Amino acid sequence: MSTDYDVRVGSMRPSQLMWSYGIGAMIDLPRLSVMVEGLDRWKTEHARVIVEERLLAAVRRALGPQVERLHEPPLPDEEPFGLPPNDPQYRIGVPVGVFPTWLRCPRCKLISDVDSGVFSREGTSARPDDVRYVHKGCSKKGKGAAPACVPARFVSACRAGHLDDFPWREFVHRGMTSCQGTLRFYEVGSSLETANLYVACDEGTGFPAGKDGDDLHPGASGGGCGVPPRSMVDAFGEKARFALPRCRGRHPHLRSHDGGCGRELKTIILGSSSSWFPQAISAISIPTGATELEQIVESMWDTLGRVDDVGELAMLRKFDQLKGATRFGDDEIFAVIEARKSGATGPADTEDMKGPEWEVLTDPASAPSGPDFMVTMGEVPEGWGDFLEPTVLVEKIREVNALIGFTRLEAPEELLRGDEDLTYAPLSIDDPRWVPANEVRGEGILVRFKLEAIRAWEESAPTQRHLERLRRANDEWRIARRLDPGEGYPGHRHVVIHTFAHLLMRELALECGYSASSIRERIYASGPDDGDMAGVLLYTAAPDSEGTLGGLVRLGEPKMLGRLVTQALQHAELCAADPLCSEHDPVPDRSLHAAACHACSFSPETGCEHGNRFLDRAAVVPTITHADASYFWLS
């Protein structure tokens, strides 16, 4: 709301604060639309610290060395149902503010800012579903209760991550104005297309007589601004370039203005997914301790990392804070702490997030097991020994995700591919000292490709000839966005592994009991100069028991997985959208996929690392139009 921790307005799961409604995102509540505010306004007394040093190092590389820790969102001990409205439990949570700040009375059509005093807030923390704004001064309320207001339907944003209320007053007055007349938002006609949505000023000329009823004639009584109502159709497309002012650089989640942004504003509908795209870094938690004590110290590093002498360990022992390390002596524990601080043990300092994971996952015999990590070597999927290596069964896995920023209008992939005009919006006014994170646990299977086979496939003339189209499409895509061509293409190896992962995920979802949206991929694809990785980890991770049902690991057995691979490849040979799907040429339309569509290869966004890009069935199996560039051959 307008004041921090003023009243409780709703609740959500911690994972939603990472992927759906994070900092800077709008949340549609039963009676309100609010925005999650920046880290400067969060209170972390009830937020648990998450320890994952590899991820923290990656966050520091992205945001600066001042980042000290990863925090879960602050959570109350339990839902405070039935407690008095002023109970402190209601003050634990994530701060939000009303956005858009312009609201509309559905009866008299008046629109105004919440800070104008026109609307009044009602409701208490004990009934967050009933917190709302009402228009007590509504001219059409009659003898009934004051009508509840609804958020304005449109907001504006720019590609620098700024978001603002729609410039209602400037829009209807065709520019800057001193008129302070009451504004109203009308829906005329039988449909809600933008051409039938109008903004009018009470001091203006009003609608033509008899247009859509007597209530649509605000009209000036004389001496007003005299502007006619304006259709919202002018706020979109090419017309918007002349109808909207330039961006003023506002970050409502920070309650600040950058000032002087000057970029072109785009009108977006409230609730549009284009208003917020998260940028997060994820890491699979892999044990780095060689001994049991080193692993225990690693798991407690948020506490033990602050210990500077042996005496402090004695104090921790006295208050039962050493957990699993209590059977070790203080001198032993302190020696491990010192070794970890000096860098003699612990994770290696590297920018490569996936390389260390690949090394551990592909060598189960040497990999240390822990409470959140257990891998065993499986067997080659039955019937596919010419193409695949023995599968690794990941019985326990922990994934940690950290939010480092977000973009608006376009997804972060565009920024990572060199689009300099698209920038991250910051999480806080000052450089953050911590970032929000969440951890999930689950299970998975690592499918590995035979290096000799995939190298031969990469180097073959048919493969080079066929996938050159996808490389050219990537260049054309970049040129259309005024970016340098020749960058951003992940390589042929990535295309075949990525497509195979999507095909197999579909089969796994039908067999293992998990929903398709809960199965994720982690692609390991790089050439000899970057670790020579060729495989995909298909795993499920959830904050509750659904992540560890055991159904996914069971499907890694050679006979079962062999059958699923066969089914996946057979189904991929012919798509329901063929021949259109298999004939798709990515170059003319500058798309970043070839023979792939929702009917055969696309997966839910929650499970795909790359937004369903760089997919091509013809790189995996023969299709009806391309039969010589596939990695797999069905007998």
Summarize the structure.
The protein is α+β, with helices and mostly antiparallel strands and 635 residues long. Helices cover 23% and strands 18% of the residues.
Keywords:
635 residues, alpha+beta, 8-stranded mixed sheet, 18% strand, globular
Topology:
Blueprint: H1 16-19, E1 26-28, E2 33-36, E3 49-50, H2 53-63, E4 69-71, E5 96-98, E6 102-104, E7 110-113, E8 120-122, E9 132-134, E10 150-151, E11 154-157, E12 163-165, H3 168-172, E13 183-187, E14 197-201, E15 230-231, H4 240-243, E16 250-251, E17 256-257, E18 266-269, E19 277-284, H5 292-299, H6 301-304, H7 310-318, H8 330-342, H9 354-361, E20 374-377, E21 392-407, H10 412-416, E22 434-448, H11 451-459, H12 461-480, H13 492-512, E23 519-525, E24 534-542, H14 551-554, H15 558-573, H16 580-583, H17 586-589
Parallel strand pairs: 4-22
Antiparallel strand pairs: 1-2, 2-5, 3-4, 6-7, 6-10, 7-13, 8-9, 11-12, 11-18, 13-14, 14-15, 16-17, 19-21, 20-21, 21-22, 22-24, 23-24
Helix pairs in contact: 7-8, 13-15
Mean pLDDT: 83
Work out the strand percent: 15-25%
> Overall 3D geometry?
globular
Q: Note poorly predicted spans.
A: 209-215, 217-222
How many helices?
Answer: 17
Please state the structural category: alpha+beta
| Share in helix | 10-25%
DSSP strand count = 24
Supply the number of structural domains: 4
Largest sheet, strands/sense/barrel: 8 strands, mixed
Radius of gyration: 28 Å
Terminal Cα separation, in Å?
64 Å
